[in-house]
Design brief:
heterodimer, A: 463 residues, alpha/beta, Fumarate Reductase Iron-sulfur Protein, Chain B, domain 2, 3 domains, 5-stranded parallel β-sheet, globular, disordered C terminus, B: TIM Barrel, Alpha-Beta Plaits, 2 domains, 4-stranded antiparallel β-sheet, binds flavin-adenine dinucleotide, binds flavin mononucleotide, binds iron/sulfur cluster
Chain lengths: 463, 415
């Protein structure tokens, strides 16, 4: 199968009104719809599909958007096969309803027809409330929290370190899966809601979060994500042609494709890792014109954390999977450029703490895969020293912020956190839900704050 | 927050929160059911038709049959249902209960008598129970006794007589329900008006046969070996119902408020009835197919439509399409057009070519290599059938041609 080499826009097309209506026509309109219980962000597909079916398209759009400010992004990026579509009853008739695609259609239809949920004639601006909240990080978690608070009339300012909002959606996920133009349209709603966005404004000095509180913000939501790549241990000198997935994907989204192509076009390359990010990197490498792309993974195919459809897609496109092989180091040429990856064969031993059988290296099996470029895609963690940005907030070993996903409260009063920075690498839809959860807690906190006179201890806290 | 649109309407002097009502049928059979419908949002109800306890009307079994069209379920529904399964007394108690619990919703009691005195007794009993208004069922297609059901609706003097009888015993508004199994609905509607009716509702079911069993040769529903011509409803009858609605709304002599029904499932259907002259709309088959929940989408869909177009009251929409409804003789036939193709979106199925060749103007050639139609524009009749079968909505659209543009004559083979 040949792959497109256009890395600028989404490859998978969406539904149009005809196809979306036909898909909605297959829905069984279930009682107590199982799809509506499968979404981490509490999306209600049972309702929005029914609305589409009964020609209440504006209502269907509203059902998605009011619940999830990134409804379009989730429609495109969610691993729906294991979320809303997992228990869809239509699979007993034929196959599950393609709920994600219907959701994406509704958002695109809104843009195409100019229908706005948070603006225009069907929207009534919420009454202004006195709260003033700072959100740190304009990724899915931060944006979702900001939208929710703005819907309640509070003033929200989002501080974003990078030049544009979106977090991983803007600087991570390759554009052939999620393009910038789509993101921009989706973010219009935040503008309509009056959220103030300050880009290129990192909150990254010592005690910066606490300072926001001191500067008059009533609450702070930390949603800074994970922007520090895990590295293969033991690499002392970086050979030329070796990238981290973060740098590799970010460079691509910053328009530095030509520069990257130099290392990949016509050459053999390797991607280290077995997760979704590794698959993304491998598929990008193909699209940059790599002759051979090897995905190196230390366990078996079924143990790869990447989604089934992603794995299949990569295989169909021609990525070579080298399984049960542990990368242990790199080989460089005389000029310091990457010449190969050293690999050791493994076999599966006993189960480890993740419940998967652990790879055990086979003695004497080391070999070298000759490649002139490689991408390490073996995980993300918090930026080193990031806890200094919020010294009053308790963090776990490794730097993740300690917060319960049920309320997104941190150990510090007035500071909340959510998204990947409390969970580790996770999903857009869970970050969205954290944003909403945090907004709920912040609303409660603001209420408490407003009713708590100075010096009075706050006792009331709803169970 | 979403703007709240006021959907309230006033029908026969009674205000209701929206124009959406259950029509008289099994969907409005008891207070327990209707209460759930009110909770879902329905603005009013036409209670299942009641008769006196003088005669018992047992129900055939099975009562209904579905007409599926291709993969679409319930394009139409056929029923041989009779009047209420329940005695008069429990129904009256239920009406009184509903009126107490739901004072803001409209309870219209549907009655059907077999004689003058029965009509009077029923009307009085229902008024006493607290019904807001009465619907006089002159239209049930399953009554075999002369002078009952749609046999009344077909005999205009009886419509007038029975309406007048009821008028004498009660002061609450009277809504006469019409059968579509006639040529002109204005005649019985006018008769009802003469008898004292305050409004007209229509349509009851259309007489039909939905299916015949090919193995047993029994028309459906198969009531132990026998079928019967009986009431057909649902989406398939909507165009017929809209026609009757508009004809009555356009008749200045009638001038009564209308309650429209026949095939309504969505807010779009409902709005079409309103635009054709209905003040309220009623639904049965849509609820039989999907349950009470469909009213949520009717409410939200109509609210958004009104908000987006800046319409303040549902009443402002009533009959709004009528000035654009004419006799075919009024068309300007000097203006002509053709079917225009946007072939960029063509999927190459060739259905347009087949139907144009066999039912249209033979205006399309088929490029078998490219799998695309090629149109000879001056052979296009603008029948538009190609656009009806095209799987891509909007690919084929109507385009007006300049004045003086001429269509080519059809080829004649005989001499
Ligand atoms: C390549 C890749 C592909 C993925 N594909 C999918 C997918 O298909 N489906 C899916 O569901 N999930 C996917 N994910 C995971 C998903 O993107 C994340 O779970 C999600 O983005 C987490 O959202 P977040 O808001 O917590 O953090 P992020 O998206 O990381 O956003 C954090 C934001 O905070 C900003 N920031 C950081 N520090 C500071 C600071 N000090 N001051 C101000 N701003 C700061 C960052 O610049 C960033 O904009 C993918 C992840 C990656 C890396
Ligand atoms: C099963 C069934 C029973 C009905 N019973 C009555 C009735 O008792 N009284 C009446 O006036 N109309 C009755 N109707 C007619 C409906 O009220 C309505 O006029 C008709 O079905 C058209 O509307 P619809 O297409 O929404 O169903 C019945 C219809 C059905 C399908
Ligand atoms: S589970 Fe599937 S069939 Fe049932 S309501 Fe949801 S989408 Fe429709």
């Amino acid at each position: 199968m040949t792959v497109s080499n256009d890395l600028g826009g989404m490859e998978e097309g969406g539904f149009d009104l005809d196809t979306a209506t036909a898909e909605a026509g297959r829905c069984l309109l279930c009682e107590d719809p199982p799809c509506s219980k499968g979404c981490p962000a509490k999306t209600d597909p049972g309702a929005f599909i029914r609305k589409l079916r009964f020609r209440n398209i504006t209502g269907a759009i509203r059902t998605v958007k009011e619940n999830n400010i990134l409804g379009g992004a989730c429609g495109v990026l969610c691993p729906t096969a294991r979320l809303c579509e997992k228990d869809c009853n239509a699979k007993w008739v034929d196959r599950p309803i393609r709920i994600g695609k219907v959701q994406r259609f509704l958002m695109e239809h809104a843009w195409a027809t100019g229908f706005k949920v948070f603006g225009g004639k069907v929207f009534e601006k919420p009454a202004r409330r006195p709260g003033k909240v700072a959100v740190v990080g304009a990724g899915p978690a931060g944006l979702s929290c900001a939208a929710e608070l703005a819907k309640h009339g509070h003033r929200v300012t989002v501080f974003e370190a990078r030049p544009e909002p979106g977090g991983v959606l803007r600087y991570g996920v390759p554009a052939f899966r999620f393009e910038t133009a789509f993101l921009k349209k989706e973010l219009e709603d935040l503008k309509d809601l009056g959220v103030e966005l300050k880009c290129s404004s990192p909150v990254a000095e010592k005690g910066a979060a606490e300072r926001l509180l001191a500067d008059g913000y009533d609450a702070v939501f930390l949603a800074t994500g994970l922007w520090n790549p895990e590295r293969l241990p033991g690499t002392r000198k970086e050979p030329g042609g070796l990238f981290t997935s973060m740098d590799f994907l970010a460079a691509l989204r910053q328009g530095r494709r030509k520069e990257l192509a130099k290392s990949f076009k016509g050459k053999a390359c390797a991607v280290l890792g077995g997760g979704s990010v590794a698959i993304d990197c491998a598929r990008v490498a193909l699209r940059l014109g790599s002759r051979d792309v090897y995905l190196l993974y230390r366990r078996s195919c079924s143990q790869m954390p990447a989604e089934e459809d992603e794995k299949n897609q990569a295989l169909r496109e021609g990525v070579h999977f080298i399984l049960l092989s542990q990368p242990v180091g790199y080989v460089a040429d005389a000029r310091g450029r990457l010449a190969g990856v050293r690999l050791v064969r493994t076999r599966l031993g006993a189960e480890d703490s993740s419940g998967r059988r652990k790879p055990v290296e086979l003695k004497g099996s080391e070999w070298t895969l000759e490649v002139s470029a490689a991408v390490e895609a073996i995980g993300y963690k918090p930026v080193d020293g990031s806890q200094d940005w919020y010294p009053s907030v308790a963090v776990r070993q490794g730097g993740l912020i300690r917060a319960d996903e049920d309320d997104c409260r941190t150990s510090a009063k007035g500071i909340f956190a959510g998204g990947d920075i409390i969970r580790g690498p996770d999903l857009v839809v869970r970050a969205v839900q954290d944003g909403k959860t945090a907004a709920g807690s912040i609303l409660q906190y603001l209420g408490e704050k407003a009713t708590t006179r100075p010096g009075e201890r706050c006792l009331a806290r709803k169970p | 927050m979403t703007k709240k649109t006021d959907l309230s309407v006033t029908f026969c002097g009674k205000k209701m929160p929206n124009p959406f009502m259950l029509s008289s049928s099994p969907v409005s059979n008891s207070a327990e059911m209707i209460e759930r419908a009110f909770e879902a949002g329905w603005g009013g109800v036409a209670y299942k038709s009641m008769v006196t306890d003088n005669i018992s009307i047992p129900h055939p079994s099975p009562r209904m049959h579905a007409y599926h069209y291709g993969e679409k379920r319930l394009a139409g529904l056929q029923n041989v249902e009779q009047t209420s399964d329940r005695g008069l007394k429990p129904n009256l108690l239920d009406i009184a209960y509903l009126k107490k619990r739901w004072p803001g919703r409209v309870i219209m009691a549907s009655i059907m008598g077999f004689s003058n005195s029965e009509w009077a007794d029923l009307a009085k009993a229902c008024s006493d129970a607290g019904a807001d208004m009465l619907e006089l069922n002159f239209s049930c297609p399953h009554m075999t006794v002369e002078g009952s059901g749609c046999k009344v609706g077909q005999a205009h003097d009886l419509v007038e007589k029975f309406t007048a009888t009821v008028r004498k015993v009660t002061g609450i508004p009277l809504v006469a329900k019409m059968t579509p199994n006639i040529a002109d609905m204005n005649e019985p509607a006018l008769a009802a008006k003469r008898g004292g009716a305050d409004a007209i509702s229509a349509i009851n079911t259309v007489k039909g046969i939905s299916e015949i069993g090919l193995d047993d040769l029994i028309p459906r529903p198969d009531v132990f070996g026998k079928g019967a011509i009986s009431g057909y409803s649902g989406p398939a009858v909507k165009p017929i119902a809209l026609r009757f609605m508009a004809e009555m709304a356009q008749n200045p002599e009638l001038g009564l408020p209308l309650s429209g029904m026949g095939g309504i499932e969505t807010w779009v259907d409902a709005l079409e009835f309103i635009l054709a002259g209905a003040t309220t709309v009623q639904v049965t088959t849509g609820v039989i197919h999907y349950g009470y929940r469909i009213v949520e989408d009717m409410i939200e869909g109509l609210s958004d439509y009104m908000a987006l177009r800046g319409v303040e009251a549902v009443g402002d929409l009533v009959g709004k399409a009528l000035p654009r409804l004419h006799e075919t003789g009024a068309f300007d036939v000097k203006r002509q057009g053709v079917a225009a193709y946007d072939l960029d979106r063509c999927v190459g199925c060739g259905q347009c070519y087949i139907v144009c060749r066999d039912a249209g103007g033979q205006a399309l050639d088929w490029d078998a290599k490219k799998r695309r139609p090629r149109q000879t524009q001056d052979k296009c009749l603008s029948c538009m059938i190609c656009s009806f079968v095209c799987p891509v909505t909007g690919l084929i659209s109507f385009k007006e041609m300049p004045r003086g543009w001429k269509r080519r004559e059809t080829v004649t083979l005989g001499r």
